[in-house]
Hints:
heterodimer, A: mainly beta, six-stranded mixed β-sheet, three-stranded antiparallel β-sheet, globular, B: mainly beta, four-stranded antiparallel β-sheet
Amino acid sequence: QSVLTQPPSASGTPGQRVTISCSGSSSNIGYNTVNWYQQIPGTAPKLLMYSNNQRPSGVPDRFSGSKSGTSASLAINELQSDDEADYYCAAWDDSLNGSVFGGGTKLTVL
Amino acid sequence: QVQLVESGGGVVQPGRSLRLSCAASGFIFGTYGMHWVRQAPGKGLEWVATISYDGSNKYYADSVKGRFTISRDNSRNTLYLQMNSLRVEDTAVYHCARDLDSGVTGPFDLWGQGTMVTVSS
Lengths: 110, 121
């Protein structure tokens, strides 16, 4: 059972917009920023979004992030086949005094 | 180039110990917080431990507290994870990761490819 809650799966067709949610509590998302990671199976995770809505260099602006209260979401516009991957949200948890991850969302491009 | 390379994984019996290493290159290692994150086969990411840039602060997941020790040698640009009293449920790929800056709360902006640890009798 992960501290942050994500839907296990999401899907969309090329060109569509997809959103992935991440729900937490006041000790993590409520008071700290949210980060998102993309992991293509068999490879290392890659930082996709940080500080709720900041894209690292090289991440397309089709990806966007937002946070409200104790929830966050990742949006992917103009879905492409190579967006097919697992997506994880993460944040620092002040009660646990450590980082916490969501269980991950497997995105399928139909 | 900027990279992290883990080593030290392998097959070990329950109750035994193993030490993982993470060699950093291409950046000033001693100015970054560092982390270990693991992924059990077919499962999601699980944070394991964090160490501050100078080694003065360390944080552990409850699942490994008292059994694992994170450390670093800034003169050797290397991060370590000493794993004692290993359990079957510790079986996973272990990744080291760099904090975005000198902090400890993330995000993790650079990841190694990981080293596999299998705990089995």
